[in-house]
Amino acid sequence: MNTSTPFPPSFLWGGATAANQVEGAYAEGGKGLSVQDVMPQGIVGPRTAAPTPDNLKLEAVDFYHRYAEDIALFAKMGFRVYRFSIAWSRIFPLGDESEPNEEGLAFYDRVLDELEKHGIEPLVTISHYETPLHLAETYDGWTDRRLIGFYENYARTLFERYGSRVRYWLTFNEINSLLHAPFMSGGINTPKEELSDAQLYQAMHHELVASARATRIAHEIAPNAQIGCMVLSMPTYPLTPSPADALAVMDFDHSNLVYGDVHTRGAYPGYFLRTLGEKGIELEITDEDREDLTHTVDFVSFSYYMSVAQTADPEKKVAGAGNIMGGVPNPTLPASEWGWQIDPVGLRLVLNQFWDRWQKPLFIVENGLGAKDELVEVDGVKTVIDDYRIAYLNDHLVQVGEAIADGVEVLGYTSWGCIDIVSASTAQLSKRYGFIYVDRNDDGSGTLERFEKKSFGWYAEVIRTNGASLTR
Ligand code: BG6
């Protein structure tokens, strides 16, 4: 094994999950309903009026009761960081109360106790696609300015309670998905087809203000806290070398980069103002909003699963599978079983792009391969021989090393769904990302027992050697 490694000694290796995909216990501990509790088919199907038994997220993988066992397994792999989200509706069941639910707060105290016991650094997502349902149904989610105040109250409660124990915070998961998945991402109840661009951009503005205000408050309450934004990254290639396709790439990039631009620079960039002007939209922006926006983040975090290509040719604009952001498949790349194109080099490219543009430390907080796994028995032990997952992660991590060698400052890497969880887009359990197999199936059957996959030992070795064991 080559013992040299580009990863700094402080590199935070770990894994990531979100409350709604892992916890279950959807109506325990005083928790209110969230938008996820009425999304039994993820974003691919319609929402329901109330929770239905076919919604796997209601029980998910029962982390709510098994967190100690699960965190012990993360510790066995050597995790230095664990990213999880706090379920907003555990803390404020309706979302608009002034006083929090103590039982909900106490649950995350216990999770933090367990992490501390194992020396694992927490990385907390404040809002991960789980807006309280009441805020969606009563206020139409983030289209309403009052959401800023409700989020402020929620974030302040978290900083006051956990600010001395949690260093790394993320304000909104994949904030740039809002325009594409308004109900899941923004708790916006009005069907997408009925929403005007003006409503969507106003909702985006409200989230950006809330994020900046939370950053300011965190810095006041918890001076050691590091606040990050979180964006869905989607490196983009022109389908052909034509200038028209290159311009299509620029426009698509701008539509995603605007979120990071505002979070790191504190104001809207010119290209975005041009878009608003051309659409005839005048955002309602108060003086207080402008002041809030100047409170910029300490680091930028992002998810990375795939890249796309862009074209200016309307006839070639055929969307790729599983991609809510738009773009067309790249003919040079293979794809996962769910049609997500696999492109490790794209990760190096996006790390360089974000670093060159924002000069803020970067944190890769989601990356991984959703795949069908088969539980087998080897020497009497149940496991999954997931060489495909090992290959995917290895190749992506090699590219992270390349970016670090390029001079990019990378704080850490949390592999998505480090334990099998319910998928966000399709709400399936069979789309597995974990190092830990959970015995639960798409029809809800299974014992919920946990088993270590082959990738479990592989990742433990990557962490132990600080990346030197990766195959280049
Ligand atoms: C990201 C989300 O978009 O992708 C996660 O932040 C999600 O919540 C992940 O689970 C993978 O997507 P999916 O649909 O395979 O679960």
Structure overview:
The protein is an alpha/beta fold. 38% of the residues lie in helices and 14% in strands. The chain contains 14 helices and 14 strands. The protein has helices at residues 19-22, 63-77, 88-91, 102-117, 133-139, 146-162, 182-186, 197-221, 243-265, 270-279, 287-293, 344-358, 387-405, 454-464, and strands spanning 12-16, 81-85, 121-127, 168-172, 226-233, 236-238, 299-304, 308-310, 362-366, 376-378, 381-383, 410-416, 436-438, 450-452. The strands form 4 sheets. Strands 1-2-3-4-5-7-9-12 form an 8-stranded parallel beta barrel, surrounded by 5 helices. A hairpin with a 2-residue loop joins strand 10 (376-378) and strand 11 (381-383). Helix 2 runs parallel beside helix 4, helix 8 (197-221) crosses helix 11 and helix 12 runs parallel beside helix 13 (387-405). The longest helix has 25 residues, at 197-221. The protein starts with 11 loop residues before the first strand and ends in an 8-residue tail after the last helix. The chain binds 6-O-phosphono-beta-D-glucopyranose.
* Order of strands in the sheet with most strands: 1-2-3-4-5-7-9-12
* Strand percent estimate: 5-15%
Unreliable spans: none
Measured distance between first and last alpha carbons = 11 Å
Shape field: globular
N-to-C order of helices and strands: EHHEHHEHHEHHEEHHHEEHEEEHEEEH
Number of strands: 14
Count of alpha/pi helices = 14
Whole-number total of structural domains: 1
The CATH class designation is Alpha Beta
Largest sheet: 8 strands, parallel, barrel
Can you identify the CATH superfamily? Glycosidases
CATH architecture: Alpha-Beta Barrel
Mean pLDDT over the residues: 97
Secondary-structure class: alpha/beta
Considering DSSP H and I runs of 4 or more, what fraction of the residues is helical? 25-40%
